[in-house]
Design a protein that fits this description.
It is a single chain. By secondary structure, this protein is of the alpha/beta class. The protein has one domain: Aldolase class I (TIM Barrel, Alpha-Beta Barrel). Helices cover about 45% and strands about 15% of the residues. It contains twelve helices and eight strands. It has an eight-stranded parallel beta sheet. Helix 3 links the parallel strand 2 and strand 3. Helix 7 runs parallel beside helix 8 and helix 8 runs parallel beside helix 9. About 50% of the residues are buried. The protein binds 3-hydroxy-3-methylglutaryl-coenzyme A. 3-hydroxy-3-methylglutaryl-coenzyme A binds next to helix 4, helix 5 and strand 5. 3-hydroxy-3-methylglutaryl-coenzyme A (HMG) binds next to helix 4, helix 5 and strand 5. Its EC number is 4.1.3.4. Belongs to the HMG-CoA lyase family. Pfam families: HMGL-like. This is hydroxymethylglutaryl-CoA lyase.
Length: about 300
């Protein structure tokens, strides 16, 4: 592209549909259909799929069968099948299921932290310490999430220094990267730019990923700003599945199809076959009895 920005040649997509997407779908998806979804995403070229989570199943019943999903998928070489783990118990369950790597999740807002994981931000960091130690012993990489980086459903606007503090804490304890979650999708290119102006010089773009929900239709624009700041790891969810159980009104992540389409148009490689991906999203939406949230999939229907 002929612009004054130095866009990357390639971007890695972190597909979160089977976890972040399905955890908030009201219609349950059968275990075998989750397995087909994960395998379909990998066949479409996604090299990193967040496959499930090992949280309290009373809190998130949609993920109660994550162990079965991990056991039943036919694994492809060089693909990361990741799991979300809130504490040591979750980590142990993830290891039993042979997850390739795990993610811990904190928030930049105290109220969201309490609602989501029933503890303060500081307590959450303390809970992650034994996970980090166990992961180090097991040789397993740990990703970190920070929710509510551009807004909180309970506290409103969140200031960049609060995001910087918790992101720094996660990196200091050994997370290899922090994914910045615009959980309720209220961010705009303006607020994303301000956030990254604070974070990138201190933390470095190569240790940051973006996790944008599309509730206000800003996700692609926000991702573009992330690329301009040098970020090359983008979370997205096939068909824009999901939302957040602790953030009323939050829609799903930006649709993977839409991210791939935008990046292809910019000449940025993702390794994903867009047509195959659209088919996977369609098939999953049919089973869920819902419409795709991908503008690209709708336009190609
Ligand atoms: C964190 C806890 C467990 C604390 O929950 P708690 O109630 O404070 O935990 P506890 O340690 O007091 O234990 C209570 C019960 O939970 C059980 N328990 C405890 N841990 C586990 C576990 N790992 N697996 C299974 N069971 C577990 C434990 O065994 C016990 O069972 P009981 O004795 O009552 O029968 C709870 O709050 C929880 O599960 N929260 C899950 C929240 C969640 O999954 N939210 C959605 C994911 S985050 C997200 O979507 C945002 C993100 C990442 O996508 C980024 C963004 O968009 O912003």
């Amino acid at each position: 592209m002929s612009t004054s920005f130095n866009y990357p040649d390639a971007v890695s997509i972190v597909e979160v549909g089977p976890r972040d997407g399905l955890q908030n779908e009201s219609a349950p998806l059968a275990t075998e259909d989750k397995v087909a979804l994960v395998e379909g995403l990998v066949a479409a070229g996604l090299g990193y799929v967040e496959t499930g989570s090992f949280v309290n199943p009373r809190w998130i019943p949609q993920m109660a069968d994550s162990g079965d999903v991990f056991q039943q998928i036919k694994r492809a070489p060089d693909v990361t099948y990741a799991a979300l783990t809130p504490n040591l118990k979750g980590f142990e369950r993830a290891m039993e299921a042979n997850a390739s790597e795990v993610a811990v999740f904190a928030a930049a807002s105290e109220s969201f932290s309490q609602r989501n994981i029933n503890c303060s931000i500081e307590e959450s960091i303390a809970r992650f310490l034994p996970v980090m130690e166990a992961a180090k012993t097991a040789g397993v990489r740990v990703r970190g999430y920070v929710s509510c980086v551009l807004g909180c459903p309970y506290e409103g606007q969140i200031e960049p220094p609060a995001v910087l503090a918790v992101s720094q804490a996660l990196l200091d304890m050994g997370c290899y990267e922090v994914s910045l979650g615009d959980t309720i999708g209220t961010g705009t290119p303006g607020s994303m730019d301000r956030l990254l102006e604070t974070l990138v010089p201190t933390l470095s773009a190569r240790r940051l990923a973006l996790h944008c929900h599309n509730s206000y239709g800003q996700a692609l624009a926000n991702i573009l700003v992330g690329l301009q700041h040098g970020i090359t790891r983008i979370d997205s969810s096939v068909a824009g599945l999901g939302g957040c159980p602790y953030a009323a009104g939050a829609s799903g992540n930006v649709a993977t199809e839409d991210v791939v389409y935008m990046l292809q148009g910019m000449g940025i490689d993702t390794g994903v076959n867009l047509d195959a991906l659209i088919d996977v999203g369609r098939s999953c939406c049919k089973k869920l009895g819902r419409e795709t949230q991908s503008a690209v999939a709708k336009a190609r229907s």
